[in-house]
Amino acid sequence: MSTTYRLSCDCGNATLTAHGEPEVSLYCHCGSCRALYGTVMLAGTAWRDDKVELPEAEHIIDYKMSDRDMRRFVCKTCGVTVYGRHKPGMPVIPHSLFRKANGGELPAELAPTLHLFYRDRVLDVADDLPKSDGGELMGM
Length: 140
Fold this sequence. Notes:
The chain has helices spanning 31-37, 95-101; strands at 4-8, 15-19, 24-28, 42-46, 52-53, 60-64, 71-75, 81-85, 91-94, 114-116. By secondary structure, the chain is mostly beta strands. The protein has a 7-stranded mixed beta sheet. Strands 1-2-5 form a 3-stranded antiparallel beta sheet. β1 (4-8) and β2 (15-19) form a beta hairpin. Keywords: Lyase, Metal-binding, Zinc. Belongs to the Gfa family.
């Protein structure tokens, strides 16, 4: 049986649905992700396009970084980031949306499996996950 995740921003205006399993759940420490998501590291899941139903265009703002091929899609009403798109091109859904839909907890099956660009970190993380200096653990 396949799992379905129904997710939304804080106001419920921008909704998305993810089906099955993500391609990867990870932490990314690169400067680009930190800048795009406005955080010390990205905690998110990457999904194939055929496994995600994205929000209607009229409910989101598409923000493109001026110097990189990276995009962040936010709710027009409350400003919450609902997903991003960058290397390798799949929708990346922040863990925060899954936590919001699951009583504040990340579903166990979505636990991160690795750290990317750990050499660029601004915060040390003491866990047993593989820590890649670059993107080599993802073939980047």
